[in-house]
């Protein structure tokens, strides 16, 4: 079951990268907030249908849970808006790895201290190694993006200078 959950999480990450690339293009065409609004509107509609048809009954409703747990819904808005802006400027790969770096760093703090009602998972050297490796991946992906972008501009500049 663990392998299935890991594979589903990887698939979820892949869909977030696709969403970021599409929303980056949409945001540059119609605007950042309209793109975010579409994402949340369609997401709310699809989720509402999933709740209606598939959600089993629970003892508690959204109004019965501790109110701080409802705040999680607000954290999707900055993510979508930031990704729409970032993908336009730095590309899908750099933006996605930067997001994953932020997710990994914060999730390790949450795990280490048992924040937000989660069971504590001790910080370890292997976890530190993962953060370092991902930081290096971010550096190399960003560096290679800059190198690829620079030669693409030079021929255009040479043509313009030759006119």
TrEMBL record:
The keyword Glycoprotein does not apply. InterPro entries: YdcZ (IPR006750). Pfam families: DMT_YdcZ (PF04657). The chain crosses the membrane at residues 36-54, 75-101, 121-142. Keywords: Membrane, Transmembrane, Transmembrane helix. It comes from the Bacteria. Signal peptide: none annotated. This is Transporter family-2 protein. It comes from Pseudocitrobacter faecalis.
């Amino acid at each position: 079951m663990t392998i299935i959950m890991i594979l589903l999480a990887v698939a979820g990450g892949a869909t977030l990268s696709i969403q970021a690339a599409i929303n980056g293009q949409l945001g540059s065409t119609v605007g950042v907030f309209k793109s975010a609004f579409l994402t949340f509107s369609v997401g709310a509609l699809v989720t509402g249908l999933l709740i209606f048809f598939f959600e089993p009954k629970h003892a508690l409703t959204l109004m019965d849970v501790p109110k701080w747990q409802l705040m999680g819904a607000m954290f999707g808005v900055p993510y979508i808006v930031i990704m729409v802006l970032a993908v336009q400027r730095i590309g899908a790969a750099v933006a996605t790895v930067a997001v994953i770096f932020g997710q990994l760093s914060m999730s390790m703090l949450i795990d280490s201290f048992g924040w937000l009602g989660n069971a504590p998972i001790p910080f370890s050297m292997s976890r530190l190694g993962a953060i370092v490796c991902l930081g290096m991946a971010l550096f190399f992906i960003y560096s290679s993006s800059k190198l690829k972008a620079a030669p693409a501009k030079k021929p255009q500049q040479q043509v313009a200078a030759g006119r």
